Amino acid sequence: xxxxxxxxxxxxxxxxxxxxxxxxxxxxxxxxxxxxxxxxxxxxxxxxxxxxxxxxxxxxxxxxxxxxxxxxxxxxxxxxxxxxxxxxxxxxxxxxxxxxxxxxxxxxxxxxxxxxxxxxxxxxxxxxxxxxxxxxxxxxxxxxxxxxxxxxxxxxxxxxxxxxxxxxxxxxxxxxxxxxxxxxxxxxxxxxxxxxxxxxxxxxxx
Amino acid sequence: xxxxxxxxxxxxxxxxxxxxxxxxxxxxxxxxxxxxxxxxxxxxxxxxxxxxxxxxxxxxxxxxxxxxxxxxxxxxxxxxxxxxxxxxxxxxxxxxxxxxxxxxxxxxxxxxxxxxxxxxxxxxxxxxxxxxxxxxxxxxxxxxxxxxxxxxxxxxxxxxxxxxxxxxxxxxxxxxxxxxxxxxxxxxxxxxxxxxxxxxxxxxxx
Amino acid sequence: xxxxxxxxxxxxxxxxxxxxxxxxxxxxxxxxxxxxxxxxxxxxxxxxxxxxxxxxxxxxxxxxxxxxxxxxxxxxxxxxxxxxxxxxxxxxxxxxxxxxxxxxxxxxxxxxxxxxxxxxxxxxxxxxxxxxxxxxxxxxxxxxxxxxxxxxxxxxxxxxxxxxxxxxxxxxxxxxxxxxxxxxxxxxxxxxxxxxxxxxxxxxxx
Amino acid sequence: xxxxxxxxxxxxxxxxxxxxxxxxxxxxxxxxxxxxxxxxxxxxxxxxxxxxxxxxxxxxxxxxxxxxxxxxxxxxxxxxxxxxxxxxxxxxxxxxxxxxxxxxxxxxxxxxxxxxxxxxxxxxxxxxxxxxxxxxxxxxxxxxxxxxxxxxxxxxxxxxxxxxxxxxxxxxxxxxxxxxxxxxxxxxxxxxxxxxxxxxxxxxxx
DNA sequence: AATGAATGAGAATTCATTCAT
DNA sequence: AATGAATGAATTCTCATTCAT
Lengths: 206, 206, 206, 206
Hints:
The structure is a homotetramer of 206-residue chains.
Chain A: H1 21-41, H2 47-54, H3 58-64, H4 68-89, H5 96-109, H6 130-152, H7 162-179, H8 183-197
The structure holds a DNA duplex (21 and 21 nucleotides).
């Protein structure tokens, strides 16, 4: 399972030796702050802002992440990995339907709340690095597992596949973030999708 | 009804007198190019790019739209107005269900193809001008009419309202644009949503 | 002395034929407006502003004055000529002292009120055209006449000459304009200068 | 050892700009250059010019002074403070008359030589920051002290007050700067003013 | 002759990135 | 390793001036 062992953040810089404790701390702090900053302001937020909020010098940010793109990438990878882990943790759930719909709702409700960076979540023609692409793919696969489990349990219609489900996931979470939907509206939006994902009635309209 | 008659693009500058033919042409060209440029690169695309692709000097762009924000706004308003007109044209359709679902699909399939600017479609905390807000609101209302018509015709479930439907519309069209979804995937995504919007079975199991 | 006959405004463009009446009117209006605009905003005020306030198109301004510098120059020349005429009109006054001090005070009080352009009044290293220099020189000479008359009448000390008097005139009128001096302050400032210009005690009578 | 001599900031030609250790030096150099540049060209001189003459990049200027207005302000404050200190140093002079007239003459002769920025020296309707206003006020007060001292010593007429004296000071120093007055002319101009400021004779005319 | 449109050359300001301590 | 300073390349916007009607 540990498909991501080689993406250990502490090694992203390519450093073979263990990093100094303070460096590691700084790296984490920068990533955390960057997630907030870019989440709020999009990729056009400034690196200076990140440095300032992280309480480090601008040069320190660039020491850890050689370019702004690398920083953005690291943020994305971190986020994807986190979500993937959550999805993987649900892979063996006793109630696959609850697991799938729960994860879907969680992504839209909570998690998405932070990340306007999701701009990149699917981006086909994107300029993403292998690392980002890999993390993204792994997340997608983890969601695929949940989907298939739910389908096997008869909780999700059989005639649907991962691409469209993933697209819906991305679409709703991004919009939820961006448009700051009212809680009730968001729930009703999910209801529609979840109903649409439910197994078809015998007399369903084609 | 046509509350937007006074937003005729040709008059957006507030000029009473008819513009010179060449000026009008330029204005249109700039708007068209801007829709593409900002559609592709988001609001962070440069005004220079717009000028260059439109084949005019940078100052000409600023003559027509005094700030970059004004240009973006004009693009948005134009787009909203166009979509609204299409929606309004369907308000009296003989088949309200086809009208509603057709418009939904159209937006996601065609129209959205150009506009990543949809960033602003719902933006609650946005910094939008009254004109933009108005155009946006009118589009929303036009969609609302289609929705109610379809509900009255029994083609859309009764327990759903405009906000969530509109959110879905925005979500899917933006993602469709951004992620360059495969045609089939997009259709299956729409199928899920449309099924979710279908009237609930009277005897829904469990 | 009609030394300025060849600076007839109507001919400044070099046009041999009589101008159309409306052209002449426009020219005057532009000059008048320009005097205000540049008086208020300095030479950095925009030509567009002048055109707008004059109610003509920008191209019309440039038709009359080929460059902004030419417009500024024309304003200056016009102003200098006007002041010179006023000075010349006082050359034969029955009370040379009153004439001199009156003109001095008038320049500082009224006239200066409009012209921040006076930046150029003396400018030695200035980039002024022959026409401007000529007009400036003539004004200076006219003031020189008033000064000498007043000296001959025993109203102004003999050991002073035009350069310093003119410098004081310029200094006070510019400052009066720029600093928007209180009326009383301005008067007391003039009192100091006028007292300083008064004939020295020993040879007071003579 | 003596390698630091090569990094002497005074060597602008070699472009051997020291970097870290002399941020302060850079700041000073920028201010000094700005005083000259704005002194010569007024506030409309470009920041690029300042950067170029200071031998630094344009961004460095903006790092030290976030806006052009801030730079102008810093220049003004610095200048005001310097003059104020000079005035204050004369507050306890044994010869108050010499102190006052000396300072007046000094301002007009030397110091003013650089600063057309004095545009702002009195500016009532100016858009000056509190810092500038404060520095200006303090300078004015310091001059006020010199004036009162001289009046108490019987060297300056009693019926005059700071506002008009200050106005004269500003007027003459600005004109002296701007018009590049000949030395003799400037001295005779001062003579007139100083005579006007002298205590009135018992049998004064008026 | 008059006009509005068009334009390129700046000008101020920002930002990712590099340098020197 | 960390930092603040420095920097040039954009980017938005302005303005004097020319063009076409």
